[in-house]
Amino acid sequence: MINSRMTRERAEGSFQPKGERSDKGSALRTIEASRVLVQAKSAKLKELRLARDATIVVAPDKPGKSRRTKQGA
């Protein structure tokens, strides 16, 4: 009798409306969604960093006087 009751409860549980069922795998969907958001944000920041670095102009060093020191004996 117990097995038939458990079987019946299991069967009725599978026919519940979707709103009443618990979302299996919802944690995985949440993790996947956050991973996608982090990748998109990282790509955008990388693009902005590369654009910023492309606009930076570094002046070449001027050839200066060489400073030689006298080597004492």
Q: Summary?
A:
By secondary structure, this protein is an all-alpha fold.
Give a quick set of tags describing it.
single chain, 73 residues, mainly alpha, 59% helix, 0% strand, rod-shaped
Sheet with the most strands?
Answer: none
Terminal Cα span: 109 Å
Fraction of residues in helix: 55-70%
Query: Whole-number average pLDDT?
Result: 80
What's the total count of β strands? 0
Categorize the overall geometry.
rod-shaped
Which regions have little confidence, pLDDT < 50, spanning 5+ residues?
none
Task: Please indicate the percent range of residues in DSSP E strands (runs of 2 or more).
Answer: under 5%
Supply the number of helical segments: 2
- What structural category characterises the helix and strand content? mainly alpha
Give the C-alpha Rg. 34 Å
